[in-house]
Amino acid sequence: MVREELQTAADRLRTAAETADGDAVERLTGLADKLDTLATADRGPDHGTMARMQNTLNEVKDDIAPEAADAIDDAKAAISEYRSTVEGV
Length: 89
What we know:
Pfam families: DUF7553. This protein is mainly alpha-helical.
């Protein structure tokens, strides 16, 4: 089963990485890879995992160009959409 929201977030982070530079490229690519894995894992990630990822995206967003920031916002929205389906918190 593919968690579409997480796959969408991964795709948007790859788009952001294409327009970013420096350390941001590596961080965004790493997060995209992690989201790809989580999107198809047997068990979906919990709120804590997704919250940490969103916090990391907030940090990265502060240091990149506006075009990449828009893609990060899209990824964060997809993650939030996924989180709305997770029980708890």
